[in-house]
From TrEMBL:
<keyword id="KW-0802">TPR repeat</keyword>
<dbReference type="GO" id="GO:0006493">
    <property type="term" value="P:protein O-linked glycosylation"/>
</dbReference>
<comment type="pathway">
    <text>Protein modification; protein glycosylation.</text>
</comment>
<keyword id="KW-0808">Transferase</keyword>
<protein>
    <submittedName>
        <fullName>Uncharacterized protein</fullName>
    </submittedName>
</protein>
<dbReference type="InterPro" id="IPR037919">
    <property type="entry name" value="OGT"/>
</dbReference>
<keyword id="KW-0677">Repeat</keyword>
<dbReference type="GO" id="GO:0097363">
    <property type="term" value="F:protein O-acetylglucosaminyltransferase activity"/>
</dbReference>
<dbReference type="InterPro" id="IPR029489">
    <property type="entry name" value="OGT/SEC/SPY_C"/>
</dbReference>
<dbReference type="Pfam" id="PF13844">
    <property type="entry name" value="Glyco_transf_41"/>
</dbReference>
Amino acid sequence: MDGIHILVNMNGYTKGARNEIFALRPAPIQVMWLGYPGTSGAPFMDYIVTDSVTSPVELAAHYSEKLAYMPDTFFIGDHAQMFPHIKERIVLNTLGSTQANEIPPDNVAVINTTDFRPVLQNTDIKKIKETLMTPSSSSGQGSAAVTVSVTVAELPTTQHIETMISSGMVQTTLSNGLVLQNGLATNQLNAKAATGEEAPSQILVTTRQQYGLPSNAVIYCNFNQLYKIDPSTLGMWVQILKRVPNAVLWLLRFPAVGEKNILASAYQLGCPQGRIIFSNVAAKEEHVRRGQLADVCLDTPLCNGHTTGMDVLWAGTPMVTLAGETLASRVAASQLTCLGCPELVAKTKQEYVDIAVSLGTDKEFLRATRHRVWQARTESPLFNVRIYASNLEKLFHRMWEKQAKGEKPSHILEWPHHFRYVLGGGSSNCSVSSAAGSTTTTTSWHKKALSSK
């Protein structure tokens, strides 16, 4: 009745789901997309939007829907628009604490802002570059040169910042007149900035001191809800901590009641006291920004960090994952592959541990990997919503083309190279609606064929 050609299910079996609408078959094509990490198992859903890494065709039997591949990854995050102040960062360093042209740690104390001009005008800023030799393949065969660069603000002392944090002050003024805001205070000063609705305008300071993290340790992190940590995963994490003596694991009280259970189980596995540190759940902006303080994120293999994985990657922190067979256990592998870091995707539990240990014990490997992730955030398609929207529209159009020809739904696995789709009107218009809560959106387009030259 509404003329909907393609109806999109963004809820699946999560809160607010409206599957009864889809069961009535109001649209000729019905599609699962993004919001639910798995198959619907329902005969009234025709396609699931996914990709070749998340849902390899050899695992198609796990899905009731036909697979419809996006060319890069089916996952997307709007982090570049929500958190533009994390596109760049300046590392804080005390004069004389490092040797000349030595790169200080890039994740002990950093500042982020959308406007670095006050920092550049009032502080001694220098860019330090270093060329590192790292393995050129995941097998470790051969080596490649990687040039790492870090922008550093040299301060006579960081005492003002340390006092601000220890005393819970909202901001501090340095001797050069530069005003810095305590990164813990965003929620108090700007509710919209705290939730990601708008970018903070202040110069934000984020340090390990704020969260009780040791400045000289390797910080492994995981910011997922604690129910995702099964005994096998915790066992791998304890193995990693045992093999990297100066490492700690940073988790969230998510929920708080889980903290004592995780600690008790870890100690039973032989984890030394004090090697697991918990922090409270934070508002979205702080949650993403503080991810910069970790060295490596250890993903939960059974159910990956989906949005959480995007959050930590936008912070520039590498993530190690172990790909399983279900959609929920392969999303991180898709994100890392799209980012250009497939070597961080393990095939076995032992490989997962070994990759994490290598990052924790090989400083050059860690720095080179962190540099690659930091650069790839803005260069790869992973956070590019414009490319994603265009490709999703092309995919919907291909679904409708099959329908218009009288074909039954079938896997859409290949992306042709000989044509592109131009947004606009045209004779082959179709409408796409999303049944997520009460939101309905409609898109139309037409196809323009181009010869390959």
